[in-house]
Design goal:
alpha/beta; Rossmann fold; 2 domains; five-stranded parallel β-sheet; 5 strands; elongated
C-alpha cells in the first residue's frame, strides 16, 4: 500500500535548533553550580518533555515548592524561554537539504509537522521561514505525538501503514510504534535527501 502522509518532527529534524533549545534553559537561571547542575540533570532525564514540564521540574528541584510561587515563576520563565527559542529558531540553519526535500515531497504526499514546541510559536517559526506552503498543518504542544497521528489519520482517512514519521527523538519513534506507522530516524549524519527514495520503497513493507 502506498505511503500517503509524512509527519515530520521539527527541531533537530528540519532545523538545527536542538542545541539552541538546550542552552536556553541555562539562560533562565544564575550561572552558578547549584543551578547548572540541576538543569543539566533534569534535561538528561526529560529533554523531550515540553518546556513547561521541564521548567516546573527544575523549579521543584530548586525547592521553589510553594504552589503560588511555583506557578508564577514557571509562567514567567516559560515566557522568557519561548522568547529566546522563538527568536533563535526563526533564523537558525535548516538541516542540510530540508527545504529541497520539502519541495520534492509537497506534490506527492500530505505533509505535516508534529512537535513538542507549543502550537503558536511553532506556527510562527514556520511562517517566518515561509514554509507554510509545505505543510497541511503544524501541530505542537499540548498535543501528544501519538494523539496527533491519530488526528491526522482521521482527517486524511488513512491507515497506519500509509504514514511515515520522520524524526530524531525517542518520542517520534514511540509515537510511530504506538500507532503502527513507519519510522525514519534522523541522526546527526543522516542525509535528508535520501528520504524521498526511502519513502518510495516503504509501500510494500509491513510495519
Amino acid at each position: 500500500m502506498a505511503i500517503k502522509v509524512i509527519v515530520f518532527d521539527f527541531d533537530g529534524t528540519l532545523i538545527e535548533s536542538n542545541q539552541l533549545k538546550y542552552d536556553a534553559y541555562f539562560e533562565l537561571f544564575p550561572k552558578e553550580g547549584r543551578f547548572t547542575d540541576v538543569i543539566r540533570f533534569v534535561l538528561s532525564e526529560m529533554y523531550e518533555e515540553s518546556r513547561y514540564v521541564i521548567i516546573e521540574t527544575i523549579l521543584r528541584r530548586l525547592n521553589e515548592t510553594t504552589h503560588e510561587i511555583l506557578q508564577k515563576r514557571c509562567s514567567e520563565l516559560a515566557e522568557q524561554y519561548n522568547d529566546i527559542v522563538l527568536a533563535g529558531a526563526k533564523i537558525c540553519p535548516e538541516k542540510e537539504g530540508a527545504k529541497a526535500l520539502l519541495d520534492s515531497l509537497k506534490e506527492k504526499y500530505k505533509v505535516y509537522v508534529s512537535s513538542t514546541t507549543p502550537d503558536t510559536p511553532l506556527k510562527e517559526i514556520i511562517s517566518f521561514r515561509n514554509w507554510g506552503c509545505y505543510f497541511e498543518d503544524a501541530i505542537g504542544f499540548p498535543h501528544k505525538k501519538d494523539q496527533t497521528l491519530q488526528r491526522i489519520m482521521r482527517f486524511e482517512n488513512v491507515r497506519p501503514n500509509e504514514i511515515v514519521v520522520v524524526g530524531d527523538g525517542k518520542s517520534d519513534r514511540q509515537s510511530a510504534a504506538a500507532i503502527g506507522c513507519f519510522f525514519i530516524h534522523v541522526t546527526d549524519n543522516f542525509k535528508l535527501a535520501e528520504i524521498d527514495s526511502m519513502i518510495g520503497g516503504l509501500g510494500n513493507q509491513v510495519v
